[in-house]
Design brief:
Order of helices and strands: HHHH
Radius of gyration: 30 Å
Shape: flat
Number of strands: 0
Helix content: over 70%
Number of domains: 2
Length: 121
């Protein structure tokens, strides 16, 4: 056996094999328990009434979600407009940090519109 921890043992360690054999049943038990817990959670959801079909008034909620997602451009433009109005007010009253905030806002807009889509493409 090699007692030097800096050099690996070329013959292999028979103790490591015994430890692995001892741990295999525990690993299999954990894997089976994880799979069974997934099945039990699905059974619990089905018992609660979630059977894969939409409830009777689901079309109303789907319409609301569709409308909100179609309005995201309006929401972003409105928020950006409010930020620029506040910055214009800061410029008018002579704030020293207004240019810093303006460059941060413009930099953030450029990151969102140019840099992030370029990295994702």
């Amino acid at each position: 056996m090699n007692n030097d921890p800096t050099r690996p043992d070329t013959k292999g360690d028979p103790m490591a094999t015994r430890h692995l054999i001892r741990r295999v049943p525990a690993m299999l038990t954990l894997a089976l328990a994880g799979g069974a817990s997934g099945l039990f959670s699905l059974a619990a959801l089905r018992a609660a009434g979630l059977n894969g079909t939409a409830p009777p008034n689901a079309a109303v909620i789907k319409g609301l979600i569709d409308q909100l997602t179609s309005n995201w451009e309006w929401l972003i433009i409105t928020g950006l407009g409010l930020v620029l109005i506040v910055l214009a007010g800061l410029f008018m009253v002579g704030s020293r940090t207004a240019p810093d905030w303006l460059f941060k806002v413009v930099g953030g807009i450029l990151m969102i519109l140019v840099v992030i889509p370029t990295c994702l493409a």
